[in-house]
Automatic annotation (TrEMBL):
Pfam families referenced in this protein's UniProt entry, alphabetically: TPR_6
Keyword Signal: yes
Superkingdom of the source species: Bacteria
Keywords tagged on the record: Signal
Signal peptide coordinates: 1-24
Organism this protein belongs to: Pseudodesulfovibrio mercurii
Ranges in coiled-coil conformation: none
Protein name as annotated: Tetratricopeptide repeat protein
Organismal lineage: Bacteria, Pseudomonadati, Thermodesulfobacteriota, Desulfovibrionia, Desulfovibrionales
């Protein structure tokens, strides 16, 4: 009987627990149990201790566990140390490797690994896997187009293998997402495969032919040669004679940047006439890597006194005399090859800027163009309509960084580098046509895509778009803004590791002032949230030295940190600065500022000043309930201490009536009760507490 009752109770318990007796008997393995509770770290140890730990199944399970632990580097270590498998196991290994690279932020390698995995999968399996991986469609697009831009700048022996990788990724893209983009780029990359056997026709006539005359191109070349010698006044003279107002404004902005490192303040001149690419060039600032230093654009070492003296001496001579002096130096047997190279480059710059095309052409054909400063490279290309390939650096990474700058500036000077696949630089089109131009007609055009995404980001910024911006345009201020947006979002969400990842991808010393301020602000908040107060103070001091406006919330947090560290005077200075800027703050923040000012004066043992802040807050911001009532409570304590019991009780009475938090009401009532005892029963009816001394 007792056994039947016990069994019935056990059955009832199992039913209530959502199990039946049969299920209860099926005990999970320890590994299954760990997986159910997501104890990934312990699960990996279990897998590693298995006797068959080197089998494909065990290796893949261990790698997957580390991905679940958000440790992609460890997962990749396991995957890369394992010899290649066969069949589906190899597809799984490569796929996990792609996910690990993606977790490490290397999208290019991720896509290459995913692509290799497709070799071991059927078409149906490929589509199923790709659709199961989040955001892979946009990643595939962005990686391919960034690799395409790198391929344009690559003129080394690896160019053919890079083209092969592009084709492999494109084939997978067309197979999984057969859309307009993949079909369009396929026809652009394979013009002979177009339905009619011809290359796609350009979308429109080149407007640069009329906007930038041939004589204008030569003037720009002479200006750039003069700038390479830091002769900005002479360069400005050439630019001032350009025939078109907008082209003149653009090149004037280039001279301004090369002289100061600053971008033009007014970009409306480009929007007014619908020159979308010219506006995108400056709005996204593809010259951002040179904001801190433009030394690569100029001839010689700007910091060398000897070089400056020699250059200035030559520049005072008449053109023919100057060229003769350089030739005499070149004829010396005592100069080094490095000095000889510098002199030949000097001769080119001088002859180009003076308009001596014959000497310039002879010199251009005889020198190593990759040793030229950027201004002089571009000047030669424009003057002699030469190929950009001849002036690119030998190192692929350097060529990739410089190529979009040279291509854009060539277009701005009237020579478009890729008329078959990119819109002319001086394309005039209304902003509402940006999407059609960048996504449909010219999907490979870097500046048009930047212009379209700038428009989208300004209208509706998002994490998804910021990730794409930061990846594709990482060498522009637009890409840096994307990283700053991501870092800010991560720190606000208290995802400090991710925030630090984004911040560390930014070259902080090279940032322009306004972006550097944003970087320092996020870093300060990250360090505060991480509990690194000393580092936060150091970063905040760097913020104050910039002279840029400090975000009020960051200033408030630092003021509270100073109070916490008992540096009350410093805290009050920060709070008073906030109060001076109260017109830009919400009423809630204004009320909070007054409250902390009161608290600071209390800590400094200035109860009168504290009382002023508390009472002003309670009177001026009654709608800010929490701050108002807390200030009234603090003021009541001061009055109570001074024996002003009626005033204290009136303040506390308001707290009792209006407080939405029970603890506040209870505390206020407790103070009222304590005051009543101090006053005595005879004064409990509200009679005057005035005491006559005689």
């Amino acid at each position: 009987m007792k056994a039947r009752i016990a069994f019935s109770l056990l059955t009832l318990f199992l039913v209530l627990a959502g199990l039946n007796p049969a299920q209860a008997e099926e005990k999970q393995s320890f590994q299954q149990w760990l997986e159910h509770y997501r104890a990934w770290d312990r699960l990996e140890k279990e897998y590693a201790q298995e006797s068959a730990a080197d089998t494909p199944e065990a290796v893949l399970k261990r790698a997957q566990v580390y991905l679940n632990l958000n440790s992609p580097a460890k997962a990749l270590e396991i995957i890369e140390m394992t010899p290649a498998f066969t069949g589906k196991d190899e597809a799984d290994r490569l796929w996990l490797g792609g996910r690990a690279h993606r977790g490490l932020g290397d999208l290019t390698k991720a896509v290459l690994w995913y692509t290799q995995a497709t070799k071991f999968l059927s078409d149906d399996e490929i589509k199923a896997r790709f659709k199961g991986e989040p955001d892979l469609a946009v990643i595939w697009h962005d990686v391919w187009i960034k690799m395409y831009w790198a391929w344009l700048a690559n003129h080394t022996l690896s160019r053919d293998s890079q083209k092969e990788a592009l084709n492999m990724i494109m084939v997978v893209g067309r197979k999984v997402w057969e859309n307009d983009f993949w079909n369009r780029v396929y026809s652009l990359m394979n013009p002979n495969m177009a339905p009619d056997g011809k290359a796609p026709a350009p979308g429109q006539a080149d407007p640069a032919a009329s906007l930038v005359q041939s004589a204008d191109t030569q003037r720009i070349a002479r200006a750039l040669a003069a700038v390479s010698l830091e002769k900005f006044e002479e360069a400005t003279g050439y630019i001032s004679t350009l025939s078109n107002d907008t082209v003149r404004a653009f090149w004037t902005s280039i001279l301004y940047f090369l002289n100061s490192g600053n971008t033009p303040k007014n970009l409306e001149v480009f929007l007014k006439d619908n020159y979308l690419k010219a506006h995108a060039f400056w709005a996204g600032n593809i010259l951002a890597p040179y904001s801190k230093s433009r030394s690569e654009w100029f001839l010689g070492n700007p910091d060398s006194a000897a070089w400056t003296k020699f250059r200035n001496n030559i520049l005072t001579m008449a053109p023919a005399e100057a060229e003769k002096a350089i030739d005499n130096e070149l004829g010396s047997m005592l100069i080094s090859e490095q000095t000889a190279t510098l002199l030949r480059n000097f001769k080119l710059a001088l002859s180009l800027s003076n308009g001596n095309r014959q000497v310039a052409a002879t010199t251009w054909d005889s020198i190593d163009k990759t040793t030229l400063p950027i201004c002089l490279r571009l000047a030669g290309v424009l003057a002699f309509k030469d190929d950009l390939n001849k002036i690119l650096p030998e190192k692929p990474a350097e060529a990739f960084a410089l190529y979009p700058v040279l291509a854009a500036l060539s277009g701005a000077a009237g020579i478009d580098v890729h008329p078959e696949t990119e819109a002319p630089f001086w394309t005039a089109a209304p902003a509402d046509q940006l999407q059609a131009l960048s996504a449909g007609q010219y999907p490979l055009d870097r500046l048009l895509l930047m212009a379209w995404w700038q428009q989208r980001f300004a209208a509706e910024p998002s994490v998804g778009l910021a990730k794409r911006v930061a990846y594709l345009f990482d060498d522009s201020s637009f890409g840096i803004r994307g990283l700053i947006f991501l870092a800010d979002d991560a720190v606000k969400a208290k995802n400090l590791q991710l925030g630090a990842f984004y911040l560390n991808r930014i070259d902080e010393p090279a940032l322009p002032p306004e972006l550097r301020m944003a970087w320092l602000d996020i870093k300060t908040r990250l360090e505060l949230d991480a509990g690194h107060q000393a580092q936060a103070l150091e970063t905040y001091q760097a913020m104050t030295k910039t002279g840029e406006p400090i975000p009020v919330m960051t200033r408030l947090r630092m003021a509270l940190l100073y109070q916490q560290r008992r540096e009350y005077e410093t805290a009050q200075q920060e709070l008073l600065t906030m109060w001076d800027q109260r017109a830009t703050m919400t009423t809630a923040l204004q009320a909070e500022t007054l409250f902390w000012l009161g608290e600071g004066e209390q800590a400094l043992r200035n109860p009168d000043k504290a009382l002023d802040y508390y009472l002003k807050l309670a009177w001026q911001y009654p709608q800010e309930n929490i701050w108002c009532l807390t200030a009234m409570y603090r003021a009541s304590l001061i009055y109570e201490k001074r024996g002003k019991y009626e005033t204290a009780k009136r303040l506390l009475g308001t707290v009792v009536r209006n407080a939405s938090i029970k603890e506040q009401r209870v505390a206020a009532q407790a103070r009222i009760d304590a005051i009543d005892k101090k006053m005595g029963e005879e004064n409990g009816g509200g009679e005057s507490t005035l005491v006559y001394p005689f």
